[in-house]
Amino acid sequence: MTVAIVAALGNPAAQDAAGEEGASVLLQTVAGVPAWDVPDGAGGDVVGGVVLRLAVLIVLAAGLCALAGQARARGAALVAGWGALVMAGAVAAAVAYVYTVTVVLPGGTFGDLDGDGIVAAANDGAAFGLWVGWLVGLAVAIATRPARAEVFDEPAPVPARAGRITDPPAPWWAPTSTVDERGRTTTRPGPTVFPPGGMRPVAAGVDQTPSRQPVPARASAEAEPDREPDPDATAVIPEASDPTAVIPEASPDATTPFPH
Fold this sequence. Notes:
Elements: H1 2-9, H2 12-19, H3 25-30, H4 44-68, H5 74-104, H6 115-143, E1 176-179, E2 185-188
Antiparallel strand pairs: 1-2
Helix pairs in contact: 4-5, 5-6
């Protein structure tokens, strides 16, 4: 596309139209950088300047457009391709100015370069790219292949790990399955509200709530060693009519007021 623009705007017909009195500013702007018409009798240094300007314009635009084509989105590629010609035009015009001053002009040296002249030449080249660069950006956008989002791809299966539940979470009351390090599956029963060993008959007068079991009290430091309470045992309370019976006082640290 850059070569086509150079061929269309740099030919002698376009140059003659841009040089006529009363020509539009737009035509003069877009016909300056791509000019390749060389007047008769021009020296080799003039032809070399034209070749250098066009070579920098085309090569730099091609390189920047190659980077713009990696955007994987047509809108971004259009803007990047447009900017590529703006940058290439500015650099090509600035290089042509430096070449003209140091090579074409008699007695010209690098000391004769003017900063304002370089800036003015770069502005002319950027203006050329600004007005016709959208054509290059459009070409880059058409040639770009946008990245397609694979929305309907199935997720990759997650490999099972040792000790990890492979099935979906089960209800709280359902058993679960686990896999150990050797690959063996073990079924674990779900939680239960019943005490270990099941429900057992308890003598009358004893609390049957599973979470509250009678705990034997220690009457003194010289009492018998700790032993497990018998769930079938019942508390024996002395009769009040027995004059020899001694009812011990409840200890503040005891859990029951009377020993078994």
